[in-house]
Amino acid sequence: MRTEQGPTGVLLVTALAPITWGTTYAVTTELLPPDRPLLAATLRALPAGIALVAVTGARPPAGWWGRIAVLGTLNVGAFFALLFVAATRLPGGVAATLGAIQPLVVAGLGALLLGERVRSRTVVAGALGIVGVGLLVLRSRVGLDAVGVAAGVAGTLSMATGVVLTKRWGRAMPLLAATGWQLVAGGLVLAPLLLVVEGLPPTLTATNLAGHVWLATAGTAGAYVVWFRGVERLPVQRVSLLGLLSPLVATTVGWLVLHQRLTGGQVAGALLVLLALRIGQGRVRTPAPVPARPALGGPVLEPTS
Predict the structure, then answer these.
(1) Which structural domain range is residue 44 located in?
(2) Is residue 139 part of a domain?
(3) Could you read off the pLDDT of 164-197 as tens digits, one per residue?
(4) What is the DSSP letter of 218?
(5) Between 155 and which of 54, 82, 230, 304 could a Cys-Cys bridge form, CB atoms 3.0 to 4.6 Å apart?
């Protein structure tokens, strides 16, 4: 007999996604070939998506191909590509701080497209999160590049819009298949960029392959499955705030594994991020179920894990 997980359990499982994403920086710098972010992004998305699609054997209904293309582009393809531009033109701390505005953007879009009321605690938590992430990752001297800032903001808007549309449209196929097709769509956006901008590497070492496997499996296939499950079952404002865990975990991994020095400001930033998460989550109530959308008048498929 299957038992439904309560909202607190769903929240904790969903948090595994940004926690896993927080390992990306360390894996990229220590295991992957240098200066190949588009290779990393493409190999994260496309093989993971193909594997999930192959396992499930499910295809989008006739009326869903366009939605899958839009969601895959917003959540994966455009997001990764814009993140690449921001990361190459801005100090990493600036790019991460721009990403921290996502909870506030999601709250606004959720009010417009989903009818979710913007709660004062979400605004307070979002503001604290931005300050906390800034303290975690910003350095005293940073240079700003207009194109990099625009790319960072556009990437944040892309992911935020994808999250809200994922909630609004629901899904018309099993969760693994819906996730897999989004990753395939995003990977197909990234592959031509990889070939034009970076080209294929002459070789990959065993260490490189291990890093790519981690990012494709736990960091993408597994993380996106639990992320989309959380988006489906919880208010998007709460889910988006969990993204603050990613820079917190990245800083912690840098300290524990890469032996990077922690400053007092970073400790204060970590505490602010934790406070933001506590304020923003509040009491987790069970939301009304959101059924998957029917495909062109077809039957509504009940959400499945």
Answers:
(1) 20-281
(2) yes
(3) 999 999 999 999 999 999 999 999 999 999 999 9
(4) I
(5) 82
